[in-house]
Amino acid sequence: MKKVIAILISCSLALGASAIAQQEEQPQKAKKEKVQPAKSRPANEAKPAPNPQSVPRQHMETKAPGHEKGPQSNEPSYKPHPATKAPGKEPGHTNAGREEMEQRNKQRSTTNESETETANKPPGPAPATERERYNSAAGAPQANRPNAQINRLKGQKKPDPQAIQRIKTQHASFRAQPKPEKVPAATFSQNYRISGSQQWQGPQYEVFRSYHPEWHDQNWYHSHFNRVELIGGGYYYWNNGYWYPAWGYDSSAQYYAYDAPIYVGSRAEPPDRVIADVQSALQEMGYYQGEVDGLLGPLTREAVTAYQTDHGLYATAVIDEPTLSSLGMG
Q1: pLDDT for the residue 157
Q2: What is the pLDDT of residue 49?
Q3: More confident residue, 81 or 12
Q4: Quick one: which of 15, 37, 50, 169 is 20 to 30 A from 152 by CA?
Q5: What does DSSP say about strands 234-239 and 228-231: parallel, antiparallel, or unpaired?
Q6: Could you give the CA distance from residue 195 to residue 305 in angstroms, rounded to a whole number?
Q7: Alpha carbons 273 and 262: distance in angstroms, whole number
Q8: How much is the pLDDT for 14?
Q9: Could you tell me if 315 and 309 are in contact, meaning their C-beta atoms sit under 8 angstroms apart?
Q10: What is the pLDDT of residue 119?
Q11: Contact 276/171 with Cβ under 8 angstroms?
């Protein structure tokens, strides 16, 4: 019995020693495997598949298909937001675009500086009035004078009655002289009609709507009209407040600056004197800058048209009853 117990004890000790020896050998083997280089493994040995749960999420995203890391470059690995991209990195950006952007920035800076200077600038002298500008340009050559329509005194609605009386007194004995070199003469045309007259409504413009030149001899004119006079190089006949060119009365005296009736009122004043009065009045108001010559030339018609437009009248470019009344000369 004692022998059996001794054998069992010996076997137990042997098994325990064997187990301890195995436990000591396992760490040593693990250390050897860790020190052993990976290339010593067989080439055909398959790598163990990584556990998806054990791989960090960041590394899994970088290894997704289509996101493998390419060849190393000098560009940063991050992609800036489109709103914060540098000018040089924007697609299609060129040097010309950068220059244009810089130019715009300079213009904005210059504009801001100008506005600041204007705001801080002390008030200067008041701008010259239209009358002062007209007086300063009156002595300049005709080619350098401002246009009458720009230079006129819009604030002065009508001329002063005293000024009109003074003008009439000055021209009491006025006589116009023909100046074909400055004011070309009109030519006779039986088919001539005053341009735009068909749109002028009212009985005051009927004379202009119906006017057409007629050619007659002296006997015809004297048999139809009481007054036929030589005025400013051409013969005119008087009829119901208007002077008309008497075409054919005398072929050697047919100088007419404009082929149209001229309204002078019921007193039958000579047309050249009335034209001179109108020229002087428009000159003082800033509409007319030409010479007071008593001729209804292009500059005079331009000034009359400007005055008529400013005062709500038909732009007839000729002296008619509404225009003469508006000037205080009717």
Answers
A1: 64
A2: 52
A3: 12
A4: 169
A5: antiparallel
A6: 13
A7: 11
A8: 75
A9: yes
A10: 52
A11: yes
Question: What average pLDDT does the segment 222-242 reach?
Answer: 96
Q: DSSP state, 254?
A: B
What is the average pLDDT across 268-281?
96
Spatial strand order of the sheet with 228-231 comes to: 228-231, 234-239, 242-245, 262-263
pLDDT one-digit tens code per residue, 41-92: 444 445 555 554 544 444 444 444 444 444 454 544 445 444 444 444 444 4
Question: Mean pLDDT across the chain, nearest whole number?
Answer: 75
Q: Report which of residues 169 and 108 the model is more confident about.
A: 169
Tokens of 226: 């009481």
Angle value at C-alpha 153, between 152 and 154, nearest 5 degrees: 100
pTM metric for this prediction: 0.55
Q: What angle do CA 184, 323, 264 make, to 5 degrees?
A: 70
Encoded tokens for 203: 């009985």
Q: Bridge partners of 322?
A: none
The domain locations on the chain are 156-326
- Relative orientation angle of helices 271-285 and 161-170, to the nearest 10 degrees: 140
Asked whether 236 and 244 are in contact (CB, 8 A), the reply is: yes
| 34 sits in which H/E element | helix 2-35
Residue bearing tokens 């008529």: 308
Write the CA distances from 62 to 47, 65, 66, 70, 76, integer angstroms. Answer: 20, 9, 9, 11, 16
User: Strand, coil or helix: what is 308?
Assistant: helix
* Residue 237 to residue 222: CA distance in whole angstroms: 9
Q: How far is CA 124 from CA 121, 130, 131, 136, 177, in A?
A: 8, 18, 20, 20, 48
